[in-house]
Amino acid sequence: ERRVLACPAEILFDSTKDDWSVSTSVFHEKVMNKEHIIIIVEDVENNTFGYYLNTEIEKKYNQRQETDSKSFQFNLQSQNNRLDEPMKFEIKDLKESGIYLFEKSDEDLMYLGDIILGKENRKNESFCKQTENNFDYHGIQNALCGKEPNRYGGMHFTPKRILVIQMK
Asked: Which one, of 34, 167, 43, 57, lies nearest residue 112 by Cα?
């Protein structure tokens, strides 16, 4: 007899349905004061990666929100044979590995640990800047995303879909 454990979850935000544009995005309203959320990014190269935030998202704009040791970054699907299987990347620096949200008027970019995510109007500016001091990448280069270096020393990617799920 096989038993399946139910894992209740709710989709809070889906960029294919919800507004993800600079200044009009509903992202903040959908995720504010939520905890146990998974932010999944699918890029145009079909890489799938993201960030699990265990702590509550606070109305703490224009400064990095610290997190706890239960939060982490992950890669679910990797193209170009970068990773053979899904991987979890544990936090090393709780202060520098949290999230950074900007006020609505300035919300063109969002920082999720080492993932810098551009809103719809600026999605081509998205990149991963892998920092060994913030997360344990097990020595793997480009563990999250990207194949083209950008001017900030990170690896560029273009998001196709952003999905935010809250685990209950």
From this structure: 57
